[in-house]
Amino acid sequence: MVAGFPACPRRGEARDILILIERERRVCDDEIATTRHARRGTIVQFGVVALLVVLFFALGVVIKSGWTLAFDERAHRFVRDLGSMAFEEDDTSLRTRFMHLGPDIGTATILFVPLTAFVLVRQCRRRAALLLLLSTGGSVVMALCLKGIFQRTRPDQLCSHGPFCVINYLYPSNHTILSLVSYGLIGALIAGRRAGMRRTLVNLFVIVIVGFVAVSLIYLNTHYLTDVIGGLLIGSAWFIVSLHLLRHMEA
Fold it and tell me: What is the pTM of this model?
């Protein structure tokens, strides 16, 4: 070794240094690729949200024009007669009583959401519990505000102007929005801790529940089909944003 100059690394040491540098470079490349993929996913998600919002308001404009009324009436008759050549209008029938479970399941979120939030707090997932409560409550406020904007009533129903009149408006369906957002988030919280077939079953169960609530509202003539479609559109947009925030918190 020459005085004043550091010793040259041995051949084995040089190889180890090169291997370490290559590993660090690959880790850095992987982190950059993951960040870019996450950014693209976020852009796509919010693009979908924007599209859903545009479709919702476009449908609302068409509904205000009155062009969808005949379509909604045909859709109601189709759902009522589905699976039966002739159905007697009898509120005591088994089918009607079964369909009345749909709105009840939608309303049951008032119980399931606080219960799920309590379980999350016990699991030290306080931010997820707070997001669940705020997202569900916010969806209700959003639905009421949108009802006040469009003010859709039935042709044979006169709604007097007042602070509580907004509850009787039809578009969008509040039950559909609340069911989609609340059960969707609860399902996402459960499925996030599952893998494989269990996660798939949880997601399918949520889809069946939300679909049953939506169909029951049309069957019982509580809402028009377009009210339910509007609820699914704007509810999906709200759910996507909430799910994005939830995954960001849980990451």
Answer: 0.79
